[in-house]
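Hello everyone,

My group is preparing for a crystallization screen and wants a predicted model to guide construct design. The compound we'll soak is nicotinamide-adenine-dinucleotide. Before spending weeks at the bench, it would help to have a computed complex in hand. I've included the protein sequence and the ligand's SMILES below. Output in structure-token form would be ideal because that's what our pipeline reads.
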Amino acid sequence: MQINAFERGLRDRVAIVTGAAIGNGRAFCERLAEEGARLVIADLIEARETEEAVRAIGGDVLSIQADVTKPDDVERLIAAAMERFGRIDILVHNVGHYSEEPFELLTFEEWKHTLDLTLNSLFLTIRGVLPHMKKAGFGRIITFSSDTVWLGTPYLTHYVTAKMGVIGLTRSLASEVGRYNITINTITVGLTATQRTNAGGSVSSILEHILPTQAVHRADEPEDIANVVAFLALPASGIITGQTINVDGGVARH
Ligand SMILES: NC(=O)c1ccc[n+]([C@@H]2O[C@H](COP(=O)([O-])OP(=O)(O)OC[C@H]3O[C@@H](n4cnc5c(N)ncnc54)[C@H](O)[C@@H]3O)[C@@H](O)[C@H]2O)c1
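Reply:
Good plan to model first. Here are the tokens for the complex, ready for your pipeline.
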């Protein structure tokens, strides 16, 4: 397949977005659909609102209920995407798990659950899409870390450990797959107001403390992250790989 590295937009490209029923994942689907991509949503729960939002933009969308920590579910997801669209160009692996716990109170179960949702799911989904991307000679993989890995935020040892793992996988794999025109990059996300983070209005009280520490004094919106996702998914971004892009209004500056 002949690839034009400077092709504009994502017309006819197929993107799998995991964890897209709510939150950041929904904004990613809308943004990619605006660029012309066809979407495959993978989520534990029904993603009807995301589907409707994508269709309202004129996008084509397939929604699969799947647990991306389970090998059989991931196999079913990949097979369904290939059957419907015949290609997988982009993987946006958004699923992760966040909880706060002082290290000494952290249970082994919560530690393992965090690694399972953040890293094992990443392993399984990438392993599922890679053969198709290699065959096509094109792929864009976008993973999600957190700015807490730079900040050393307390009570998050399990989360920060897993999110550092995402960076490690991204860097190492980039070196293996670049020769196939497959890129993989990670975004270290700052506190973003989503349904989960804003449960009970909690984001606004946390933001009161965070905003003065940011270089840009406004809250991160899911659309801010979605713009970076769309940029990294473009064929024209094909020279950027193995990178960690911090999107948090400049809380972490390095
Ligand atoms: N929102 C933030 O402030 C923030 C900050 C830093 C990093 N992040 C990272 O960004 C990503 C998305 O965050 P968010 O706040 O939008 O998440 P969220 O918790 O709001 O949404 C996650 C989605 O994933 C789905 N999901 C959960 N487990 C799943 C599984 N096993 N299989 C399939 N789907 C599953 C949920 O149903 C939900 O729709 C995560 O990786 C998170 O760690 C978010």
